[in-house]
Amino acid sequence: MASELRVNTLKDASGNNSVATSVVFAGSAKSWVHFDMSDFSNKDSHNIASITDSGTGLGEPTFTSAMGNALYSGVATGGNMSSSENGIQIQRAQMTTAKYRIEFTAGGSANDTTTMHGQICGDLA
Description:
By secondary structure, the protein is mainly β. It has one domain (29-121). 6% of the residues lie in helices and 45% in strands. The longest helix is centred in the first third of the chain and has 7 residues, at 21-27.
């Protein structure tokens, strides 16, 4: 038998630090990932089913639960300690409700880095 819990506010165990459920729903990251581009291993994540190697310096995390639309917000970070000219971006044209693409460059060239992170905020489907 399924049940439903309806609340307006969440509080910690001591009754302090309250937050409206609307903040939790709308303001929390809906997906995050920490992966290695050298072998596309998923080190840790939330709402990520898989990560596809789309070419040198390109990785595509696929959501376990789809986004409501492709107008979500994304942030990517990562690094390659051998270069001070790293470039990281989420390719807007590659954002869909099912996945997104992260691009990493070092010294102006596409490069697979061992440390890549992505975070997505928006509405789930």
